Amino acid sequence: MDRALTVTGILLATVGTVINIISLIFVSRTTCQAATFAKKVLYIIIVQHCIDIVACIAYLLSSVGLDEQFPSIFTCRILRTRALFWTAINYRAYINVYGSLWQHVRIIYPFWSTVLNRTEGCLGLFLLATAANILQTLAFTRLSDLSADQSACIPCTPCQTGENAGIYSFLVLYSTIYRFAFPSMAMFASFGYLMQVLSDCDGKVYKKMYKETRKNLFIDTVLFVICLSTHEALFTLNVFASNMEYGLRTAPYEVASLLALGYPVLSPCFSMCLRTTNYTPVLEAVLRPMDYQKLSKLAIMWSKYERQKRKS
After folding, report:
1. Where do the TM regions start and end (predicted)?
2. Which pLDDT value is given to residue 288?
3. Helical H runs in 64-179?
4. How do residues 168-181 score in pLDDT, each as one tens digit?
């Protein structure tokens, strides 16, 4: 069983790397030929594919049986706990959030000067995500401690009820919220609000924008939630479990990790299937000022409606 899961993970990570490279070539070629206003969305897709490649390679390295002394104990421990893989997944989640929020502001409130449109702001968000990423990566220390052989870990008080048990449990819960819950809610809210506004607009451009937004919702949000939900459930249950239930090398956790690996593998597949080879995002099309005004009025009307609904 363990060997079958390991082989499956290696094959899936290899296939995912190849698919992402192929999709990256297509998107890069389209970016070179696209207009200036269409390149921003394509750049975001390129970054997504690059992160997916890193995630697949990191999972591949974690599945290979490395000696504990190679290249060092610290590096080997990072690879064995898949901390590098989950770091890539975290960045993938937040580039998805950035894309959804940026498109939201770009279409509905284009006259706003937001942090999402400035290089300094993007760098600041990246540094903030990196700092939070370091904290959540520490959560895998608990998984590493609980992955030891039970016969060599009796009693298990050092890792389950010791002085660090509380902070490890907190980091696990924090990791789940940071990596999964918050990005999912942010993307659902952003895409949902954008689709509500676009559905009230008449015209072919708006209908096409609505369809593109729905595709982005599926690729960036729905598929993300489907693939990661099982792992996040087991990862959170690890706080309340014994060392043999949801340890790092148990079958349930391995299966959940494989399902999570499915996101960087399936995402480029759906991207190539749902989007054309020469994909030019309509979301970046420059709309007429009257259309901007119409969208802003719709957004204001919708917010007033929501406030009245809450009061009633």
Report:
1. 6-29, 41-61, 177-196, 217-235, 255-274
2. 44
3. 73-80, 83-108, 119-137, 139-146, 157-160, 165-176
4. 677 777 778 888 88
Residue 66: C-alpha distances to residues 142, 187, 246, 255, 258 (Å) = 20, 37, 22, 21, 19
* Residue 256 CA, distance from chain mean position: 16
Can you count the helices (H) and strands (E) in the chain? Answer: 13, 0
CA distance 91 to 77: 21
Give the highest mean pLDDT range of 89-103, 171-185, 204-218. Answer: 89-103
Residue 210: name the closest of 219, 220, 201, 223 by CA. Answer: 201
- CB-facing half-sphere around the CA of 126: CA atoms within 13 A: 8
* Matching residue, tokens 């895998």: 140
Q: Which two tokens stand for residue 101?
A: 């929020």
**Position 221 pLDDT exceeds 60:** yes
Number of residues assigned to the chain: 312
Tokens of 73: 């104990």
Q: Contact 24/47 with Cβ under 8 angstroms? A: no
Confidence band for 261, pLDDT divided at 50, 70 and 90? very high
Q: Is 140 exposed, middle or buried (0-12, 13-18, 19+ CB in 10 A)?
A: buried
Average pLDDT for 96-103:
86
**pTM, to two decimals:** 0.78
* Separation CA 88–CA 207 (nearest Å): 34
Burial class of residue 182, CB neighbours in 10 A (0-12, 13-18, 19+): middle
Q: In angstroms, what is the C-alpha Rg of the chain?
A: 22
* Residue carrying structure tokens 């259309």: 291
Is the pLDDT score of 277 beyond 50? no
Q: How many angstroms separate the Cα of 106 from the Cα of each of 2, 15, 53, 168, 212?
A: 48, 35, 28, 40, 14
